[in-house]
Design brief:
The protein is an alpha+beta fold. It has one domain: NADH Oxidase (3-Layer(aba) Sandwich). It is built from five helices and six strands. A hairpin with a 2-residue loop joins strand 4 and strand 5. Helix 2 runs antiparallel to helix 4. The longest helix has 18 residues. The chain binds flavin mononucleotide. The site of flavin mononucleotide has 8 residues, from strand 3.
């Protein structure tokens, strides 16, 4: 599939069927994560793939809102990075998260980002600390995100071209518009 067609059809998918994700597809998701570009090639990221349904259940309570759907996913991926390895680890981990989502889409899988950095599990306990404890993630790693993945059980229309925010794009100087095509 052409890249533009892929991003045209991609939507965040939070409902999944019971169908298991084939091992080859999980292999391809691993490859996509590891092919993510990073600043100076420092590759500060590390990934925890979770297929255990009990762990997915526990991870779905990492924060009070926006993570519950992970309980219904067949795969969760926790994206971590080591700030000692790169000053721009947030960018690197975010690119890796996006690579994973786009690879999932290209494999016919639905996915959704779950923000973890800067989010709280409960009063006084960051979502990161909750996840690190649950998965034995070492203290040198920060957690940027999780991705929930599975075969989609919901239909979502692509965002219509005419609804995209063309007013946010300028030509040559801020405020200067592209001529109408
Ligand atoms: C940085 C980032 C963090 C996000 N965090 C969450 C989240 O914690 N929970 C969630 O359900 N969706 C999350 N999303 C998904 C967005 O809500 C979604 O991408 C947005 O509403 C646009 O919808 P679409 O992806 O279907 O185009 C996140 C997306 C991004 C890029």
């Amino acid at each position: 599939m052409m890249f533009l067609d892929l991003i045209r059809q991609r939507r965040s998918i939070r409902k999944y069927t019971d169908r298991e994700i084939e091992a080859e597809k999980i292999e391809q998701l691993k490859e996509a994560a590891l092919r993510s570009p990073s600043s100076m090639g420092h590759n500060p990221w590390e990934f925890v793939f979770i297929t255990d349904s009990q762990l997915l259940n526990s991870l779905s309570t990492a924060k009070p809102h926006g993570a519950g759907f992970l309980a219904g996913a067949k795969l969760g991926i926790v994206v971590c990075a080591d700030p000692e390895k790169s000053t721009v680890w947030i960018e690197d981990a975010s690119i890796a998260t996006t690579y994973i989502q786009l690879a999932a889409e290209s494999l016919g899988l639905g996915s959704c980002w779950i923000q973890i950095r800067e989010r709280m599990h409960s009063d006084g306990k960051p979502a990161e600390a909750y996840i690190a404890e649950l998965l034995n993630i070492p203290a040198n790693l920060k957690i940027e995100s999780m991705v929930g993945i599975g075969y989609s059980a919901e239909q979502k229309a692509p965002h219509a071209r005419e609804k995209l925010q063309d007013e946010k794009i300028f030509l040559n100087r801020y405020g200067s518009r592209f001529p109408s095509p």
